[in-house]
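Risk register update: the risk of archive-format incompatibility is retired. Evidence:
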Amino acid sequence: MAIITGAASGIGHATARVFADEGARLALLDINTDALAEVASEIGTVCPDVFTLTVDLSSRQEVETAVQKVIEHFGALDILVNNAGMAIPAAIDDDNYAYAWDQSMAVLVSAQAWAVRAALPALRQSEHPRIVNLASTEALGATRFNSAYTVAKHAALGLTRALAVDLGKEGITVNCVCPGPVRTGITDAIPEQDKAVFAGRRTALRRYADPEEIAHSILSLVLPAASFITGAALVVDGGLTIRNA
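Archived output:
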């Protein structure tokens, strides 16, 4: 049984489809009620046991309440995928920087910690407990005028490593996926020509990823074959971080 946050679009939507195809029972959390219902309807043909909750992931109370409702509904929890994401580019001296900072920290870091805290009692009862946090290649570097997002992604990676140490003795694995450029709602506004130029200059594979490619990476970290992997940052970036020229 798996929880996926930010499941209404992008990587979360793709992860819900991939997990459904593997026969998982799913709880899908997102702030977008209508889009969430569409995802549940889409995967319902292969995964009849889908539970959806509209959640503002910037709210600690809503995150904790939602996870508790999921556990009450299913009576168990094996996998937590902290996928929810957003991006508010802002330079340090922009008028909206405080908002960008607060939202980035709340959704990209704090929500992950609150979800883990709420999920722990049920995860401790699972035979194969798994936590996967989503970060970004921004956790490994930085992009101009994006410091709030970059700091939050560094923090998500740090949270992953710290929790892997804290929870390892209980057999709970905690890993992180760091995607590079992906075709999601966050990158929709970038013109195709600009995407092609960026990918050609920066990635070894010369393209953006499809969300499904990230979803399969997430799946790989919750399979039995990944039982001895914890505290890892799985970089899925088409070679962006290794290309110098």
